[in-house]
Amino acid sequence: MRPVEIKPGVYWVGVNDRFTQLFEGFWPIGQEGISYNAYLLKDEKNVLIDLAKSIKTDEFFEQIEEIIPISDINYVVINHLEPDHTGIITILRKIAPQAEIIVSEKGATLLKAFYHIDHKVRVVKDQEELRIGKKILRFYSTPFVHWPETMMTYEVTEKVLFSCDGFGGYGALRGAIFDDECTEKDFYLREMLRYYTNIVATFSRSVLKAIEKLSTVPIEMVAPSHGLIWRKEPSLVVNLYKRWAEYAFSPAEKGVSLLYGSMYGNTEKVMSSVLKGISQASLPVEVFNVAETHVSYILASLWKNRGVIIGAPTYEGSLFPPMAQVLEMASLKHVQFKTAAIFGSYGWSGGASKRAREIVLPLKWDIVDVFDFNGGPTEEDLKRAEAFGFDLAQKILTQP
Ligand code: FEO
């Protein structure tokens, strides 16, 4: 892509990644892609804010050279050391040795650990300012959005927040880079939620602290390092991140995620009756086969819905393994404050619902019903399943 002037003297110089299949080696982005947005500020001193993963380095540096010679970069601000934003720093150091790297104190430690760089490094403190000509940069320490060293950089005169991972999302840019130019905003908002739950959600308390810290800062444009730049509605993404962060500490939206796994169709058959009950109560529901769906997508649903139904058979005296893996991930990501119910088929010993309860025990889930049935469901079982779905949905709908 070509550089884009997003404000006078401020250029987007990012790259799209449609090659990486698994972000962080784990989260699928093969279909959706991701962008690594970097920004070049041209003034008396020229500043590059954030970099990119070590892909498309030619394209990245060609973009800069359309604006200034690489040798004219004075500062490189590294808001966050994760290699999706810093992978090309070793090459940059070789071709722009004059550039001073600006990081937080913890950032300097990680810069040395990851890249063995410790010279021409300037450490900045929370809310320290750096005048680069007419423009002024102010650095806000925002630890754990996403790593402990993370900061955001605010340009005072143009009121642009370079927020790095914060307010970012999956999804390669599809031509448009601004919210008001984009005709596929639903795609980006959906992928932003998935990104939030996969990458940031564990640190929701830190997200709320960062948003509170920035609440008095006049922000005209949110320029994250992943996804769209928000200039028409910068408050939209700040408010979305705030809402999602609050779901870590209180019930989320009135909807239910139905997770199921089935070895020979018995649990699946009962699930159909459970769904009938939910639909009779008119509660929104999202259905996932845990054996076939990557947990990345399931997490997004679990995070935003306050209801969870776990439908899985007993497997070797315990829980169907793909379901156990999903619940363990929910536990790792602190998916809390859910209203839940469990059902599933057992052949002789049972054990699925007991194990499911054990995994989610620390998560403050209110388990309102458990329905274990033996082998293939009877007509009575199917009626019980319908009531099971209806009752859970009603309980959620009547919550405050
Ligand atoms: Fe986009 Fe935490 O890196």
Keywords summarizing the entry:
single chain; about 400 residues; alpha/beta; Metallo-beta-lactamase, Chain A; Rossmann fold; 2 domains; seven-stranded mixed sheet; five-stranded mixed sheet; 12 helices; about 35% helix; elongated; binds MU-OXO-diiron
Describe this structure in words.
- This protein is an alpha/beta fold and 400 residues long.
- The protein folds into two domains: 4-246, 4-Layer Sandwich (Metallo-beta-lactamase, Chain A), CATH 3.60.15; 253-397, Rossmann fold.
- It has helices spanning 57-65, 83-86, 89-95, 105-115, 185-200, 204-213, 234-246, 266-281, 295-304, 321-332, 352-360, 379-397; strands at 4-7, 10-12, 15-17, 22-23, 27-28, 34-36, 39-41, 46-49, 73-77, 100-103, 121-123, 129-131, 136-141, 151-155, 160-164, 221-224, 253-260, 285-289, 305-311, 314-315, 318-319, 339-346, 366-374.
- It has a seven-stranded mixed sheet. Strands 12-13-14-15-16 form a five-stranded mixed sheet, covered by helices on one side.
- A hairpin with a 2-residue loop joins strand 1 and strand 2 (10-12).
- Helix 8 packs across helix 12, helix 9 (295-304) packs across helix 10 (321-332) and helix 10 packs parallel to helix 11 (352-360).
- The longest helix is centred in the C-terminal third of the chain and has 19 residues, at 379-397.
- The protein is elongated, with a radius of gyration of 24 Å.
- The termini are far apart.
- The protein binds MU-OXO-diiron.
- MU-OXO-diiron is lined by residues 80, 82, 84-85, 146, 165, 225-226.
